[in-house]
Amino acid sequence: MEEITLKLHHDLPFNNVSKMFPEATIYRWCNSYVDYIEIHSDDAEMDRIIEALPAFIEEIHSETVYISRQKGRASVIIKCRCNINNSTIRMTESESCLWRAPVKYKSGEEEITVISPVQENFRSLYDKLSKIGEVEISRKFQVLPEDLRDNWTVSIMELFSEMTDIQTKYILEAISAGYFDTPRRVSLEELAKRNGISQSTMQEHINKARNRIIYSVEPYLRMYLEYIGAMKN
Question: Which residue, of 147, 150, 192, 210, has the greatest Cβ tally within 10 A?
Fold first, then answer.
């Protein structure tokens, strides 16, 4: 079993965005329901990126779920519209290979790490990728089957499906405003005031959302603890 990091030059949608904004670094996670995109750049270029995003999202027939901008960074969640013709992620999966998140885009170059169970799968994937552009293998090494556990990301649907829209809205606002920072940058009173609700109601929504997330990641924490214990032994 091999883990291979590839550098690709092609004209698929996300890579084309990085060509338009070469100074930006773009990271992408995808769970087949949504794409989470994190963009890092200076403020001047970020202004241009944010302005261009609606046209890009419309071009790939997607919809914006969430967008947040901070100094030097933007976080965007859009509905997944990946398929085997417009995404190296789907191409990788179609050849029974795994991919390790996040995929990185910079200056018109995509960097993706894939895990191939057998050489034939990777050869087939390499041929498929070669048809859409240039492919360079930048790193390759053997991995053990148990290493695959690190490849599986937490499911967004599993984490958030039982949260209401209002709980999601308020916990995102609390995170962005610095409510969970140490020291806190915003008080519960201020968050409640911004939304025209009582402190107790705001606290209830935040607590329910936070508890749902904590209980969802509990199995992954247990798996991690067992893994660390096995490594020490």
Answer: 192
